[in-house]
Amino acid sequence: MATPYVEDDSGKKDERKYIASTQRPDGTWRKPRKVKDGYTPQEEVPVYENKFVKFFKGKPDLPPGMSASESQQQKPPGGGGGDTDTSGLSKSAKRNMKRKEKRKQQQPDGEVDAVSDAVENVSISEDANEKTPVSNPPDDSASAAAERVKKLKNLKKKLRQAEDLQQKVDSGEITEPTKDQQEKLSRVKTLREEILQLERDS
After folding, report:
1. What is the pTM of this model?
2. CA 161 to CA 183: how far, in whole Å?
3. I need a labelling partner for 164 at 20 to 30 A (CA). Which of 29, 32, 108, 197 fits?
4. Measured between alpha carbons, how far is 156 from 185 in angstroms, rounded to an integer?
5. Are 118 and 138 in contact (CB under 8 A)?
């Protein structure tokens, strides 16, 4: 926005100009200001750019000697196999895009693994007249198998902690175990039985 200048008509020899009075948003008026010759208003001053910014702005997008028509011919159809154009993205953004694509590609494999686990757990009965179902639906058996694995892992962790505690008591590090520690030590046998039961079931 250009600021209007008003010539000083006072006849003095100093070559000054006036910036005309302007109205503020609240309705009041600003006084006209005297400015020196060659003054540039703040709104019109160009933004400072350092050497590197100027260099990269002036740098062509294409390699030297390559025209725009050649670059269009070299681009494979469909943008290089990706769903989105990654030319304007930073390195980290491109890396994240690749990770997302890998996850999408691996996701169907996870579903196949769950179904194959369910198929392995299917038991075929010899008596054809039995009314009991042969197996659970794949989703139920897969989720049940996942729960069993999670529970087994949790029980093994508790057993490991109890065994470590027992070693500390035996070595004399802990002279008098607390009530909670004594409960952990007493549960070692039941934990082992539960682990064996879960391993047999799966």
Report:
1. 0.32
2. 12
3. 197
4. 14
5. yes
